[in-house]
Amino acid sequence: MIIGGIDIITLISMLMVASTPVLLAATGELVAEKSGVLNLGVEGMMITGAVAGFATAVSTGSPVLGFVGGALAGAAMAMLFAILTQVFLSNQTATGLALTLFGLGLSALIGKPFEGVRPPATGKVPFGPLSDIPVLGRILFSHDWVVYLSLLLVAVTWAFLKFTRAGLILRAVGENHDAAHALGYRVIAVRCAALAFGGALAGLGGAYLSLIRVPQWTEGMTAGAGWIALAIVVFASWRPERALIGAYLFGGITALQLQLQAAGYAIPVHLLSMAPYVLTIVVLVLLSVVHRRGVQAAPAALGRSFHAAS
Amino acid sequence: MTEILLKIDGLTKAYPGVVANDHVGFSVAPGEVHALLGENGAGKSTLVKMIYGLVKPDSGTMEFLGRPYTPAEPRAARAAGVAMVFQHFSLFEALNVAENVALGMENPPPMRDLAKRIREISQAYGLPLDPARLVGDLSAGERQRVEIVRCLLQDPKLLIMDEPTSVLTPQEVEILFRTLRKLSSEGTAILYISHKLEEIRTICDGATILRGGKVVGSCIPREKSARELAEMMVGGEFAATERVSRPFGAPMLEVKGLSLAPLSQFGPSLKDISLSIAAGEILGIGGVAGNGQEELLATLSGERPSAPGTVWMKGADISALGPNPRRALGLMSAPEERLGHAAVPNMSLTDNTLLTGTIRMPLVKNGFLNMAEAKAFAEDIIREFDVRTPGPWVAARALSGGNLQKFVIGREVLQKPEVLIVNQPTWGVDAAAAAAIRRALLRLAEKGAALIVISQDLDELMEIADRFCALNEGRISAPRPTEGLTIDEIGLMLGGAHGMEVPA
Ligand SMILES: Nc1ncnc2c1ncn2[C@@H]1O[C@H](COP(=O)(O)OP(=O)(O)OP(=O)(O)O)[C@@H](O)[C@H]1O
Ligand SMILES: [Mg+2]
After folding, report:
1. Is residue A30 within 8 Å of residue A154, measured between CB atoms?
2. Which of A139, B181, B188, B417 suits A223 as a labelling partner, its CA being 20 to 30 A distant?
């Protein structure tokens, strides 16, 4: 199926791969924000995950271990943020920005020896005959395991927040930390756990970039994906299913503009590379305008430090 | 009864600048309804927070069922059989009723069963609740029901209620008391904090009186008059409200055909409200909270705009003006929710004066804040309204509930408004201080200001208002002079306003 020099099926299957890093990071940040913490360090956690995952995979030869390493590195960065903001009550905005700067610098340092190296390849999940189904087979059943893991994580997060008691407590903490404390919930502990989860997912998303999407290590390779993840969380009104739409939209436009470039359209390259960022934000803003309640959907305690008064 | 459920001995807790509890001791028997009495800031809330494991005592011991009891956290207290209704709601607005209840329970059943149990229990005790509604859409009275039902579902041995009735209607109080009597006959002890002394006399078997953090006495409330109780609390006599008849002047504020659409799906609306109030007059508006009281105050204060030609002051249409221009004209207001609406919890009292005081007081010069003036103004309020606090630098949230209320009312009254609108002016204020606030309101009227007092406390309205009307489902009844108005007639005016139906 080719329209205007672009193969639609390739486009859709590329879209899922292009979206996965942002989707993972956005899902993680969504959970952290639901608990009431605004961690602006997503970009820093992603790039740290990217370099740590890459280094682990190259030195062990195992991509799976690489992803584990990336997630652990992201979580470690998040714990640094947690100690500063939750224990020492530092300002969340400033600390988040610092975390991003720190992550970018640290990753450049660690990554130096790995430039130009090729990581071990991650295979596609063998679906057997399923992947031979025309159209659907290529779109749905031709990916690596992380793509399916990211979708599973979105579903799990959605169900966790909506149906489980732990999810309810997490939302309660993000809604009114004083009341949660009065009822005896450990606000700080819940927030640290949510932050660690968010960091792990950001790290996983970063590792996906360096191990599968690109796949190699270059300095600053996240190129703002962490910021897009943050924007997606807000405009998705803190709902995992909408974050999925946002991330796939971003990935879709990224894939499309790459194809447009390849097909030789006479559109300036700068405009094309800009398109995913601009269009994703425009669409999400429109969405949150249509759903006026979206504005009120922000966790009421988001970004506020908690300090037990006794 | 010689058996003892809870025994407290030498409990002490100090905060910077105040000793909130100083060697407090008393005991409660199973099935006893025990009152904690004391002025605002006497340390009642601090004491029950220690029993609930929220605040750690500096020293002292507690025994529960004969065993040493040192709850490290509320979970431990709940496990031991202690439940608590908080003075300031501990609810989550973005969550629904069932979720809020589940959060206050140790082992909640699955949501569907829980919703069913909430319906059953709330119906059984006459406090109907719809488990699926968002708490943010509920009125203050309904929120209180959520807290109470949350406790009832845990079959507590000791139920602590910190001012549970301050936002309930007389009918709701009646029902609550029936609930409490039933619980107490089943052996549940109740620790009851309230400033409504008549209620204490009705329901409580014993009372411990606190003053300045110390136990200053105990008594059997039934054997004392409300006045004697109040005097035990303050440790002396206090002046009662006295009303002198005054001449009314020209109409100050007029409302003509005011309607307002609801903000949320369940929110109350205002329907074709008309009223007029003259200089020197106090208009009392009664009715159950959540029938449009907050909305009425918001439109009159300028917080929510209304259609042109609906709100008039001294003959000028002010419908389009925001709160600050209205303040400049002399129209001030004090909303019901003191933490978060009337005052910013984390800001100091001095900073809080700047929220409403920059128009009529010299608190701003050439666009710069005049902090010295603001501090002096805050100190004035603290002195004139007897706000118990170490000083104006204290954050609003650190004040006890009643003291913050005195501060908020004082801030408006001292700015010499020409029209003042207050909602629940004595919510959670102790008897002596409530009398002081009412006296201040009367004095303001004597000086020629027009006042609208919105309150659920009918006695309060009968005491100070010249005319009375009822606000019910966003409609207002024709005002009647309070002189000679009987309780039956008021009941008729309140009409269906018992708020006992659950909206579909
Ligand atoms: N977290 C806190 N930090 C500092 N001081 C506090 C804190 N909590 C209470 N206090 C002070 O302790 C004293 C007792 O307060 P508490 O809330 O126990 O009074 P209360 O008897 O419940 O009064 P009210 O009837 O107004 O609710 C007050 O002087 C109050 O200012
Ligand atoms: Mg109190």
Report:
1. no
2. A139
